[in-house]
FtsX-like permease family protein
Amino acid sequence: MRFRSTLTVKLFRDLWRLRGQALAIALVIGAGVGTMVMAVGLIRSLETTRAAYYDQYRFADVFAPLKRAPEPLMAQIRSLPGVATAESRISTGATLDVAQVPEPISAKVHSLPRADASALNRLVLRSGRLPDPNRPDEVVVNQDFAKGAGLQLGDPIRAVLYGKQATLRLVGTVLSPEYIYALSPGQIFPDNRRFGIVWMGREPLAAALDLNQAFNDVLIRLSPGERPDETIRRLDLLLAPYGGAGAYARTDQISDRFISSEIDQLKTMAGVLPPVFLLVAAFLLNIVLARLVDTEREIIGLLKAFGFPTRAIMFHYVQLAVLLSLGGLAFGVVLGGWLGRGLAGLYQRFYSFPFLSFRADADVYWFAAAATMVPVALGATTAVWRSARLTPAQAMRPAAPPDYSGRITSTIASALGPDEPSRIILRGLLRTPLRSGLSVIGLAAGLMLYVTSQSPHASIQRMIDLGLERADRSDLIVTFAEPRDARALYELERIPGVMNVQPFRAAGARIRAGHRVMREGLSGVEAGGDLNHMVDVHGVMSQPPPQGTVITGRMAKLLDVRRGDFVTVAITDGERPTLRLRVTDILDSPFGSSAVVDRATFNRLLREGDTLSGAYLEIDSRALAQIYARLKQSPMVAGVTVRASMRHAIRETVQKNFNTMTFFYTGLAVLVVIGVVYNSARISLSERARDLASLRVLGFRRSEVAFVLLGEQALLVIASLPLGIFAGIELWRFMIRRFDTDMFTIPFVIDPRVVGQGVLVVAAAAAGTAILVRHRVDHLDLVRALKTRE
């Protein structure tokens, strides 16, 4: 008990004396724990919220679009093995005309789900009410579209539904589990102003599409534990005579795919960044405790001489290590919760969840605590073991003075140090190469985090530029409700203000290589067209081959094919032919996973003549209003994409999201730099206080004495810059490979400005820390310092 009380008093005295270093360590540990709690909590929140949302509003497990089928066919679909419930609905594309938006608006229109609680893909009413069955013109739209387009309840919406014009009236706004991330076809960022989802009564929609007592879309919910593969196979066989476009599972549904991709990216971040912070914290803790043991040699010897057990002394330093890290753990938990709630609010605006609260259960905090204590224990092991090996006689004998007479140390210091203070700095660094090297690594970690966290902005901007500037130079993209013959191309060319038209043909397909299958599109691109090109992530353009197909790198990887291999393409449109195509090239495209063929070849293989699914248009901006008006009235136009508006929406979305993430990661990088620089400088000051005081007594000015200490830190910072830049670049290269999905490929880009900014951030953090240390040097107690061996 006497031992325990005495060491407890010493423990708290040590903590107070090391409060500066403890704060620096707490900042670094807090950054790591905060990142971990935030990332793991957000992963848990997104997964839990998605699962609860899907279950509560009965999101379908399988989707099956088709051309047209009679309603009695649903009885056979419901009898398929593994099907718990199945519902038919009517879906179509449409062009909307809203007074607040000058451009034509593309929309997806669905029939309303049944009103009972067992219906699939139920809607969450956010404002207004659902349409009255006795009023065929009433509709509801997704909430984000209503906000983006400036729609109010009661506003009229003019629509073209499969060639028929109708005036609809908005009576409510809703959310749907099917459109948590609402995207128009071919896009990866939402444009809520120019793309919307509309739900209306089934009877008026069926009348507009001539689908009375028929349907063109099927929703299926599987029995618990059932896998969708066999159900999809049977469903495709059943729907093939009715123009089935190929059923697909929920995991292939575009909204769910994007959310899964976001969760995977959070998992990557949680697996990469927190270990960096915690390893830096372990290194700092090791240095602090090693220095403490060295300076308390006599105290350890006296404790052992007075009978204190070795295990009690070891336990004392273990307790000190744990207490030094507890502040950082507590700070990290609070920081992670605060950041998690803030980012959850950001996700709530970006993804249309009816509810999303940050959730970090007790196991998340226990995991964060364990992940903190393991590297802390590793960092303290060396120092604690050093205290255990000291015998009382060894401990009470003064340590040998540092030896500066080594030939290598002396030669380097004399050659590089033009004056005595400079030579003192170099000898000090060379005398402790391991600690100097670890300090360089710690500082480099801060710069690495900054470079890595800032690089996504340039890479994503490059991806957008490749996809929207180099690959697509059109002003408008017009999509037809169904494939049209060449007369549609001539009609587009005759519109006043249209200067150039490039047609395309697109069809849904199942692409197979061996036992591997992908549900993707097959695109027929005009050879020699100058409005739309195939571009890879390096900006290299290519043309579609006269024979065979070009596929993306993601598709080649998933299908495990190489150049020269053959793939089997089962078209799910029209006459549904099966094609065997040779892979002539593999293109690492920024967006999508489609296969590309020459349009003329595609038309010939489909045996349908000169047909097109839509066209890219180059227009005279002065005739924009007239062109919009003409396209809004065209009965067969299912969608119009305005490239300039889409570019603006995408850049605005990226800017908003990356501003928040930039601020967050810059702060973490600064915390690491401050923690490493301050700890290194304080330890050097403690160890060399007697030397610095001696220099003052010998006549050195305060500025010269400060130069000895701060010059040492400056050299460490300078030495860390190349390593930090290199590590940041390589870490971003590694993370890009982890972020790559089947929907987009982020090109590897390093903006030189980011590197320069990172160097300035490190320098500024180091300079701020140097000011604090300089203050301590200037107020050094000379008498006290000269009376101690420290």
In short: Residues 694 and 786 are 7 Å apart (CA to CA).
